[in-house]
Specification:
about 35% helix; about 140 residues; globular; 4-stranded mixed beta sheet; DNA_mismatch_endonuc_vsr; Restrct_endonuc-II-like; 4 strands; EC 3.1.-.-; DNA repair; alpha/beta; Endonuclease, Chain A; single chain; 3 helices
């Protein structure tokens, strides 16, 4: 697992570059906040996490349970999900807005155009809301 990057991933860099080009300024991987959010917008008191659909069990076509070592993976991914929810709860308790941008919004056949991604993030930052996801999960 140590070979798996947890920062500066391709999806994260795509989001960072797109938002920077659109004029948004942010800090990244702020260790003083719970969960070290990928992007922190202090001006808006908002944080953004770029989540991998597999590692964080997103309910989309990109997620599937592995067939080998199924028990171990189920425990690992379920623990990841529980940790994510605890971190999001802590951040909201501290007054931070939380947004999740899922990997499936950035690649694959259903990816959003970069302009749409920037529009969704900027609308959320400007209008507010304690929690948002891109794409929205319709379960």
């Amino acid at each position: 697992m140590t070979a798996i990057k947890n920062r500066d991933t391709r999806p994260e860099m795509l989001v960072r570059r797109s938002l920077h080009r659109a004029g948004f300024r942010y800090r990244f991987h702020v260790s003083s906040l719970p969960g070290k959010p990928d992007l922190v917008f202090p001006r808006y008191k908002a944080v953004l996490f770029v989540q991998g659909c597999f590692w964080h069990q997103h309910q989309c076509a990109m997620f599937h349970w592995p067939k080998t070592r199924a028990g171990w993976w189920r425990q690992k991914i379920t623990a990841n999900r529980a940790h994510d929810e605890a971190v999001q709860d802590k951040l909201r308790e501290l007054g931070w807005w939380v947004m999740l941008v899922w990997e499936c919004a950035l690649k694959g056949k259903n990816k959003l155009p970069k302009e749409q991604l920037v529009l969704e993030v900027s609308d959320w930052l400007r209008t507010g809301g304690s929690f948002a996801e891109v794409p929205e999960v319709l379960v």
